[in-house]
Amino acid sequence: MVAPLLDSISPNVLSLMSALLVSVAQTLYRTGLTRLSPTATAFMMNFASAWMAGGLVFFLDSGPGEWTWEVFFWFAMVGVCGGAAGRYLNFLAVKLIGLARASVLIQSLLIWTSALGVIFLGERLTPGVALGTLAITIGAVLLVYEREEGREKIPLWLYLVPLLSSFMYSLTFLFRKFGLAVVPSPPFGMSISTGCGAMILLFAMPFTERRSPPHLASALPTRRRPWRGGECPRRAAFLDSRPGWRNRSRGSH
Fold first, then answer.
1. I want to staple 46 with a disulfide (CB 3.0 to 4.6 A). Which of 22, 176, 197, 233 is the partner?
2. Tally of domains in the chain
3. Is 233 within a domain?
């Protein structure tokens, strides 16, 4: 009953609904990145998505029907490029260069996707579509743009991380198109891709945990650091103003 209802909705409306859900997910995972590493965050997202997609296959879909290795290959490539590599690089870029800069460069995904569609799928890029893609990209850049004055200088090579992430994401649209042409079952394809992505990240976790690039390590706060000028008097004044602190300090002597 639910599947025919979704099929009756316009693809444009489904795209808008997808964009809304993705924006909510971005807000949630940015909060998670403050406590988890990029690998652990990407693994949890893939793991949860695989379980949800498996439930959709069970309740809403009849499955792939006749099983072929071609079906597994295309959807597994979606998980390798998008669920594992693309998502990990995306989270790593947020850690390395900041949220605003990473979000700006991730918008190049639209350009990569359009180019791959024209080259490999034979799609026609009309002037209207090209102008709309460029307008969306520029608009997204303006929404997250921040002034760089007074900010720390970041090595240029670190900007390649979000660019590579957007390119890996763009490959998933190509592989997904080939996979859905063989088996038109989005929930099944999602369960395969996210499951493969979760497995890859699980195996990669021992090699990526507690290993920070030098630029990231220098930016992270340490547990013990020397007092800066002016901080010690302020802390002393704060402690001295607390009730009972002066008596405890005298009693200790």
1. 197
2. 1
3. no
